Amino acid sequence: MKTYNHFIDGKWAEPATGLWLESENPYTRQTWARIARGNTADVDAAVEAALQAFETGPWTRMTASARGKLLWRMGDLLEANADRLASLESLDNGRPVEDVKGIIRHLSDYFRYFAGLADKIEGAVPPIEKPDYFNYTRHEPYGVVAAITPWNSPLLLVVWKLAPGLAAGNTFVLKPHEVASVGTLELAALFTQAGFPDGVVNVVTGTGAEVGEHLVGHPDVRKVAVTGGELAGRAIYQLAARDFKPVTLELGGKSPNIVFADANLDNAAKGSVMGMFNTSGQACIACSRVLVQDNVYEAFLEKLIEHTSAARLGDPLDPATEMGPMGCRPHFEKVMTYLKIAADEGTKVVLGGGASTRPGLENGYFIEPTILTEVTNDMRVAREEIFGPVMTVLRFKDDEEAIRIANDTSFGLGAGVWTEDMRRAIRVSDRLQAGSVYVNSYRVVSYMSPFGGYKNSGLGRENGQEAIREYLQTKSVWISLNDTAPPPFGKPYG
Predict the structure, then answer these.
(1) Cβ neighbours for 270, distance < 8 A, ≥ 6 positions apart
(2) Do the Cβ atoms of 386 and 338 come closer than 8 Å?
(3) How far is CA 179 from CA 33, 125, 227, 355, 438, in A?
(4) Order of all β-strands in the sheet with 414-418
(5) Of the residues 250, 322, 368, 470, which is catalytic?
(6) 250 is catalytic
(7) How far apart are CA 389 and CA 368, in angstroms?
(8) N or C: which terminus of the chain carries fewer CB neighbours within 10 A?
(9) Are the beta carbons of 272 and 287 closer than 8 angstroms?
């Protein structure tokens, strides 16, 4: 069993507490690693390292092109270490290793994309109406960024922050979820190997109460980026607001997936299964509300059950496994509570509905892929994010009712539309209140395209050119062209 310390100022640093947290493999329920249990002293040390790297270190004197070269090198290193990092993440959170490998191999492209943008951060020369002045704008980094990430896709979601934030010239203190910290720690060590100056990327592990709160509230942290649940995001947002820190929030979802009668039902069923059960439902973008038009409801449900039933649950390190366990015991218990709520609300279980009893899975936090029918949109299971393999299937009559039900939620992260009528697809997509809309597909992301939510699903955008703007602030510079100063009580605005 390996013990991991914090990663601060380019070095491994023992926790000030002298304490560690155990990392449990959710498939075996066995401790497989230990991570440092940080406190405020560890946070202070990491923030100071990041601050010095930003203000006085070589990072701040580095050209944008030089930063881009380091990011490109980081992409190469990530690609070379993808399989090793995937295995570690799979041990940490139970996600099938083949799924994680695909994600991490692709993450190298994120670093390369933002490496190419690093030296394309351009200001402007506005054509101002004042002939006696020259004005130009600059886009500058904030400084120290606090990044807080969840346990379900830790490496993906930390790279979504690091790649654009570093390209913009910021430094980072990362706080991964205590359930799944190992991959982030191993990633941080690669930055040193890539040639990044000490202190540019730091990691402090521990709980939200002992590390996260102090990090967000630290006076030298100037920007906060978070992926997590709605409640955690709200608390972080309120804490950051005390010092008017800009915040990027990618939060929860209860995404609708609309299947119209003219859709290719087999494709829609396959896409719905992928969009919901691919990560055992532990994805913010998961299509947990499937809306099906009345006249194809039974036919679609039959196909949905057929494709979902074929899912292979098992050891996350087995390449054949398609669904792994819940990421940890507390989350397993939360999802099981929602299954009881579903029963109390009068839903019908047409598939799954409880903990898995399949041979060989007895020690893991497995829940069978579950499909609930006879669901109405006012039920808790249709309104609250369960974040597990629980799909609700609802009926609708026509376009207007589908749009009404789809938008009747406090969330707005994703939405799906299945139809062979492209005019309908565009009309409906335009009216859906969601940051990403997928037509005849689901859960597609790219480093080139922005990702984020409407309503309670978050603020700001990750990926694409919009992401780098999240890590920049704008300065306006005024230069007088007058040989003499204007009168002390002149007209500065006229």
Answers:
(1) 307
(2) yes
(3) 11, 48, 15, 21, 31
(4) 348-351, 370-373, 390-396, 289-293, 256-259, 414-418, 436-439
(5) 250
(6) yes
(7) 7
(8) C
(9) yes
Place of tokens 């984020």: 452
Give the tens place of pLDDT for each residue, 26-70.
999 999 999 999 999 999 999 999 999 999 999 999 999 999 999
Options 178, 230, 284, 287, the catalytic residue? 284
Distance of alpha carbon 180 from alpha carbon 327, whole angstroms: 9
pLDDT in tens, 425-481: 999 999 999 999 999 999 999 999 999 999 999 999 999 999 999 999 999 999 999
Q: Determine phi and psi for 66, rounding to 5 degrees.
A: -65, -40
Residue 328 appears among annotated catalytic residues: no
Compute the CA torsion angle 297, 299, 300, 301 (nearest 10 deg).
80
Residue with tokens 């497989």: 32
Residue 290: strand pairing partners: 257, 393
| Ordered structural domains, the chain, with CATH | 2-251+453-476 (3.40.605.10), 256-439 (3.40.309.10)
2 and 31 in contact (C-beta within 8 Å)?
no
Residue-averaged pLDDT of the chain? 97
Residue corresponding to tokens 């038009």: 293
